[in-house]
Every structure is written in structure tokens, then in C-alpha cells.
Amino acid sequence: MYTHQVLHSGQIHLWEAKGDAEQFEGRVSHCHKEYEIYYMFDGEADFTIEGQEFHVVSDSLMLIPSNVFHQWTYPPGRIHHRMTLHFFSESLDKTMRAFFTDMFTEPLHFLNGARNNLRFFFQAIVDCEKMPAPLQEIAIKSRMVTLLTQIYFLKSTHAIQPVIVDERIRKIINYLGQHLVEEITLDQLSDKFAITKNHLNFLFRKVVGTPIMKYITIKRLQLARQEIQNGARIGEVAYFVGFKDYTTFYRSYKSFYGHSPSVLSASHTDPAKIQL
């Protein structure tokens, strides 16, 4: 498997990978703190994203929201070539952030990327590597916005519908999303969905790739991050998103994001202060 990072500019990361599936079969379930744009230049892969399955083929695009558990596998012996762009919402100004991150509320799969010039927009970002450092940062950000603009335009077309792996898990995930800030226990979920706690844990981990309580914690941290970005007070956010005490929230946030919540809060007055 050959892989290398093409560009790393602040809160924007662009990866390119080429490999033989006999050497690299895929990736186990994981989640990114960043938003992800996955473009398959050549090859195919099966994606499982929180109970939904997508078959990604050559010249197709996947939009993957932040903090969403996903995994992929490649068919044996098939060469693949992909490019992935990861970015934090803080890399966009407030107006653009609200506009473009709206595309990432759920996984989306598009076909025929070349027909819509997506290869050109990705290559334009790659070409920034040749630029001097001060210009490179500006160029990468502006060209990423151009790519997002083109993808937003494509959003009006019909995306490929996923296959639901397990309808029960999809119902549980939808329920968690609607009741995230409320107290949630395994006993409550077991009673509501008529599944024993042990089987619920087993099934959720099998389909999503993580224990259900860890899933809830990560989704609450994501919500807290969004609230802090919108200017909410950190102490109030901790309780609002469902944490029972600030210390637990602080430790969980720092462990997952790699910095304290106050760093994100400081970025509102001075974006240069945030170090991710």
C-alpha cells in the first residue's frame, strides 16, 4: 500500500493514496473530527457509515460528516486510487461555515465526478504544493471553497441512496439524534426498542463499529463544539449537551479534540489563536 499526504495547511489536510487491495483491505470503523470529502479516482470500495452501506465506484464522491463512524473495504486484487480532503469548520469564515457544512448533515454519495469537473478542482488544490508558504495557505483555502461550491451545486442532483444494514440500529441512531441532550441509559434504550442490553451493545458495535455509550459521548462533544463556535459559554454548554459535570466534559473534550474547549472559544475573537 502506497500512501502519502499531499498537503497539510493549518486545518485543511489533503491525502492521496494508491494501492493494491491484496495488501490493504480497508479501514476498521473510525471517526474523524474533521469533515471529509472522499473522491475515488479509480477503483471501488464498500462503505459502511453508521448502519448505511454505499458502494463507491470509480469517479464517485462521498461526503462524510465529522464524528460519524465509518469503515470501508476493497475487493481483493483491485488497484485503487483515491483522494481525501479533511477540513475543520474553523477553516471557513462564519458565513461560509453555515452555508457549506449544511451539506454534511448526512453521508452523501455522487457519481460522475469527472463530468462535473471534480478532478480539476482537486488537482487545483494539489497544485498549491508548488507555491511559497504564505501564498499556499491562501490558495488552498480559496480553492477548497471553490470545490465546496461545485459540490454544493451538485447537491441539487440525485445522490445515490444507501442500503440500510439494520433498520433497528437506524431507528436507534435517529432516536439518539433527537434526544441527545436528554439523559440516556442502556436500560432506557433496551426497554424502548425491546432489545436486551447485551444484545443492543453487541448489535450496535457490530453495525456502527463502536459501543453505544461512546457513540453518545462523541455526538455530545460534537454538539458542544458547534455551540461553542456559535458563541455559547463553555460551562453552560457542558450541561446543555448532557454531561452531568464540567470536569467530565472537559476531560472528554480535551481527550477527543486534543485541546481544551477554551481554545476553540478564543478563536472567535482571533482565529489565529486556535491550534489543532
Average pLDDT number:
86
CATH class of the largest domain: Mainly Beta
Most strands sheet? 6 strands, antiparallel
Q: What proportion of the residues is helical, as a percent range?
A: 40-55%
Q: What coarse outline follows from CA principal-axis ratios?
A: globular
CATH level-four homologous superfamily name of the largest domain: Regulatory protein AraC
Number of structural units classed as domains = 2
Notes on the protein architecture:
The chain has 276 residues and is α+β, with helices and mostly antiparallel strands. It has two domains: 153 residues, Jelly Rolls (Sandwich), CATH 2.60.120; 107 residues, Orthogonal Bundle (Arc Repressor Mutant, subunit A), CATH 1.10.10.60. 41% of the residues lie in helices and 23% in strands. The strands form two sheets. It has a six-stranded antiparallel β-sheet, covered by helices on one side. A five-stranded antiparallel β-sheet has the order 3-8-5-6-11, with no helix packed on it. The longest helix is centred in the middle third of the chain and has 22 residues. The C terminus is likely disordered.
Write a short abstract of this structure.
The protein has 276 residues and is an alpha+beta fold. The protein has 2 domains: 2-154, Regulatory protein AraC (Jelly Rolls, Sandwich); 167-273, Arc Repressor Mutant, subunit A (Orthogonal Bundle). It is built from 10 helices and 11 strands.
